[in-house]
Write a structure and sequence with these properties.
Pfam families: Metallophos (PF00149). Helix content is 33%, strand content 22%. The protein has 415 residues and is α/β, with parallel strands linked by helices. The protein folds into two domains: 263 residues, Metallo-dependent phosphatases (Purple Acid Phosphatase, chain A, domain 2), CATH 3.60.21.10; 146 residues, no CATH class. Helix 1 links the parallel strand 1 and strand 2. The longest helix has 24 residues.
Length: 415
Amino acid sequence: MATVKILHTSDWQLGMTRRFFAYHRDPSKVADNPQVRYTQAQLDAVRTLAAIAKEEQCDAVVVAGDVWDTNHLERNFLAKIKEALRQFSCPVFLLPGNHDPLKTTYPRQMLEELSNVQVIDSTTPYTLSDSVEIIGAPLYGNKPTKDPVWQAVKDLEPTDNIRVVVGHGTTTNFGDRSGDEIIDVQRLSAAIDEQRISYVALGDTHSATKLNPQGTIWYSGAPVVTDFLRLPDGGGETNSGKALVVTITTHSDQPTSVAVEEKTVSNWRMHYITKQINDGQDVAEFVDLLESYEDKHVTVVKYALQGVAPVAAHAQLASRLDELKDLFAVLYPSENRHRLAVAPTLEEINDLNLPGWARNALEELIHAVDDTHNAAPSIAERDDDEIAAASPQDQAGRATDAINLLFRLYSELNS
């Protein structure tokens, strides 16, 4: 009987930038700049992975592609990553992926100075011990023409040894995608059943995902979130911030067993919230949702509110959003999908004591908002290009601004 414990991770995306970090109120303050803090979180994640590997007494770490988000990293950042990699107490195998293929300026010279780090540059097996091999399927360019993992394992014969295969790319499990470059999960599962390989460690999808019923083929997910979880439907990046501790054991009288345990690496979150607004209660529910978040300082929220709100609720929302913006890493509206108009209640209108001409103007503005929302299809049913070109929504936005201005001016006159 032989046993090996592997820490499976991928998609570190080191050096990744995101445009929405610029929505922070004052990104010029370096200490509170979310891009700076996010980059630090990526560096901290590497250190956390080293700590997990040591605590779990792992025999090796495999990083299944996209270690780097770009090959143009600052020298001081590379130096910090190098120092973090030194903290691993076991061998670390780095696989080039589509973001950092071998044919680019991969920072190999820097990595070669580390005795515990191996860049997987071919499909030749690496011997971890007498009974364990690491077999990689590196990407040489960012668009492979054949299933890279199958090319690495297709000629392997059955063995009593443990073989961990490391690959990167899209699999047949996701939608109706097809093509010679797609990683065939069913074919790999058959190779595992035939004892040609033992476990397939994949990267590319940033959510930790089991890909076959046996639990022998997994995406590890990114150790730090990279994209939005869409709420309330639950789509998008659903299970990131993770790494996998994989224990593989061979038996003389039964098939090789594989046990996988998810480990949390980072608590950063990115949520994209859409909500239909019909009245003040809906506005209050949205504000309550934002206030309920824990760890706001490491949470990015993009929101798209669609519908209409009374004047008072609309003003209260604006005030609370302005206050909450200082608590979140980033809190900002979707440029294309956030469409919240003002619809004053009859009580709000009567309280203004408007002269006849002003009341007529207000009613015209309200009708403009109503007509737009009644005529336009749901924003959720249209793509971003269609929304961006929707001039009636722009008219509703101008009408909403005019209503808010009218209410503010007459409220000041009446106060």
